[in-house]
Amino acid sequence: MPKFSIILVSYKSGKDIDRNISCLMGQTYKNFETILIDNNSPENGVSIEASEKVNFFIQNDKNIGFAMANNQGAKLANGQWLVLLNPDAFPHESWLEEINKAIEKYPDCENFGCLQMLDGVPNMLDGAGDCFSIFGIAWRGGHRKPIPNDIEDGEVFASCGAASIWKKSRYEDLGGFEESYGSYYEDVDLGFRHRLEGGKCIQLANAIVSHKGSASSSRYSEYAVFHGIRNREIAYFRLMPFWLLVFTLPLHIFAVFSLWFHALIRGAFVPYSKGIMAAFEKTCDAIKQRQKIQKRRKASVFDILRIMSFSPFSLLSRAIIIRKIK
After folding, report:
1. What is the 3 state secondary structure string of the chain?
2. Which of 78, 134, 231, 286 is deepest in the core (most CB within 10 A)?
3. 4 strand-pairing partners
4. What is the dihedral angle through the alpha carbons of 98, 100, 101, 105, rounded to the nearest 10 degrees?
5. Residues in contact with 39: Cβ distance below 8 Å, sequence separation at least 6, in sequence order
6. What is the C-alpha separation between 146 and 259, in angstroms, rounded?
7. Inter-residue contact 251 to 135 (CB < 8 Å)
8. 57-94 pLDDT tens trace
9. Worst-scoring range by mean pLDDT, 34-48, 124-138, 218-232?
């Protein structure tokens, strides 16, 4: 039985798969299996050679979305731990060994995040964990910023889905990724639900991947903007505890309109607007979902506030928010 099940979900990612699998085969820690899922790529799909190098290969007959495909892979997994890895996130040689060390070092933690370097750009970060603002907006900490010299293991709000580690039993108990999202914000949503139930996430300084980012969809494409904004609003209204919702709603509305103006400047006003409208259409569903989610909450409001960011400047600058481990 493998300790780790590494799940790769590919959509038009064929050019990255070979390099990714090569990185996995070169790992110093070997007790893992690899599950590769292709979401019916119309072009640049998984080659026969790549499909034969993994333990399990699934060719979906339609694009079921990133969230559902990862859940699909989790059901096949034999490992004690799930490693959700993007095809364009290339692990360094000792990556899995460092994750294994962390599991032994932090036995009470069931979710870990990896340090993501920007592929091809020395000493530049792609991200160091997902952060969440009191304004109700999440961001990837340190995105496209120089890596700090003093970075070390610490607690973050949630792990970025590009390279995320979950204890399989915990992932299953949480219900995995919210499949209605399709793509974008599903990692923040899962991490938030984990927080509500008293969990924590430790960001690892030495478990490193090189991440290209936005390989299958441009960061500012209509698809990315629409789904990112729609899912952000749904997540905010279904996850925020009641008193936090009351307290943060004016701040959230201010942030939404400010970012709407920013979308206008960068030419993304139409998909941003469509995302907001689509979120409103899902309001009733979000309210029904929040009733079930909040019933499972074990963490206090203070526990949730403790890990959030209060500074608008941290949000605007995509600052790294890593706190000491408790």
Report:
1. CCCEEEEEEECCCHHHHHHHHHHHHCCCCCCEEEEEEECCCCCCCCCHHHHCCCCEEEECCCCCCHHHHHHHHHHHCCCCEEEEECCCEEECCCHHHHHHHHHHHCCCCCEEEEEEEECCCCCEEEECCEEEECCCCEEECCCCCECCCCCCCEEECECCCCEEEEEHHHHHHHCCCCHHHCCCCHHHHHHHHHHHCCCCEEEEEEEEEEECCCCCCCCCCHHHHHHHHHHHHHHHHHHCCHHHHHHHHHHHHHHHHHHHHHHHHCCCHHHHHHHHHHHHHCHHHHHHHHHHHHHCCCCCHHHHHHHCECCHHHHHHCCCCCECCC
2. 231
3. 32, 81
4. 130
5. 9, 10, 11, 60, 62, 63, 64, 65, 66, 69
6. 25
7. yes
8. 999 999 999 999 999 999 999 999 999 999 999 999 99
9. 218-232
Placement of tokens 């370097």 in the chain: 117
Tokens 């701040």 locate to 251
Closest by CA position to 201, among listed 227, 166, 236, 172: 166
Residue ranges per structural domain of the chain: 222-297
Which residues neighbour 246 within 8 Å (Cβ) at sequence distance 6 or greater? Answer: none
- pLDDT tier at 217, thresholds 50, 70, 90: very low
Long-range contacts of 220-224 (CB under 8 A, 24+ apart): 220/266, 220/267, 220/268, 222/268, 222/270, 222/271, 223/271, 224/184
Band of pLDDT at residue 215, cut at 50, 70 and 90? very low
Q: Is the pLDDT of residue 191 over 70?
A: yes
Distance (Å) of CA 191 to CA 53, 129, 131, 202: 31, 11, 10, 11
b/e per residue, 20-34, with b = 16+ CB within 10 A? bbebbeebebeebbb
Residue 144 and residue 212 in contact, taking contact as beta carbons nearer than 8 Å? no
Tokens at residue 227, please?
Answer: 């789904």
Give residue 38's pLDDT band: very low, low, confident or very high (50, 70, 90).
very high
Cβ–Cβ < 8 Å for 311, 119: no
The pair of structure tokens assigned to 302 is 């203070």
